[in-house]
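User: I'm curious whether this sequence folds into something compact or stays loose and floppy. Could you predict its structure so I can see for myself?
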Amino acid sequence: MSLFSEVPQAPPVAVFKLSADFREDSHPQKVNLGVGAYRTDDSQPWVLPVVKKVERMIVEDHSLNHEYLPILGLPEFRSAASKVALGDDSTAITEHRVGGVQALGGTGALRIGAEFLRRWYNGVNNTATPVYVSAPTWENHNSVFADAGFKDIRPYHYWDAAKRGLDFTGFVDDLEKAPEHSIFVLHACAHNPTGTDPTPEEWKRISEIMKRRQLFVFFDSAYQGFASGSLEKDAWAIRFFVSEGFELFIAQSFSKNFGLYNERVGNLTVVAKDTENLTRILSQMEKIVRTTWSNPPSQGARIVSNTLNSPELFAEWKDNVKTMADRVLLMRDELKSKLEALGTPGTWDHITQQIGMFSFTGLNPKQVEYMIKEKHVYLMANGRINMCGLTTKNIDYIAQSIHEAITKIQ
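Assistant: Here's the prediction. I'll summarize afterward.
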């Protein structure tokens, strides 16, 4: 008998199982609206032109080698990444109380931050500290904090299914009722999976409550620039909280806004009270990284670093990001218009009110099943679709499929 005969079969990761099913489907009109990656109007992955340019520069730079990076990562990448999140004029940066940890994507940044908080936040070994994640949220949020050792992971109100928008009243009520020093995971912009963000005024109310009740802010920033086309607009909430004096963490991902999905380029930005606190925090994070991946990879970090630290390349990158954001915004407008033209039951204002890669359509599980089995349009069971999967060539078919699903299946 094998030593591992009692190991249970783990369920597949839903979004990757959906993509596998899509690949096996031979239907000529099949569409994949599940996986969270940008696609062109020809349904193809897009390597950003600026990324191609920087990759050639790296190849031709004979000063580079394959020696280990520092444990905390490429210094010029870490500082540039934090600067993108906080802004050139950030007081926290000029006061030398901001530091970064290069991580394996946004997931790695979340995990390093979660591990640190479990060990050191508000005392040692905080397994019982409540961690709040939005309902719904990206599936990894629950797993990352659970695997880091937190025992009390709770949902906070976020999505109002009836009005297809933010349940701000429920959100605020949960903030008021959460035990002091609870940890809240907040989506900086383009909430995954709903695409619904608080307004600036709502963010201000959230900030006021969190400061008064001494709640810890952990931002997940996976879509800066990609959501609206503006780096500044998409970082508004982060920068406001920092201006209000919060000590906080920001898990940054460059998968979407650089198209570097397989390079796993992430950064954990730490905003501390002062330089002395920052130094101690980073010293402990260095120990965590050392036993996790020891040293981070260089290629993706060099691409991002070279781009962000060159005014010319930085401007080109912002144009590339806006190209992606504008296509998504166009598809939102088109889908809403086509559903309304078809007379599809219900309101579809939420399609254009939401932002970023994902849209919470409001389709129920039975309607989703109809979409997949009868129309060969693949989307998540909760009704989330990737707007990048829509193109000028398939949007009529998708709109008609949604119309059929809603009119035939209750």
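Summary: The CA atoms of residues 97 and 274 lie 5 Å apart. The two ends are 50 Å apart (CA to CA).
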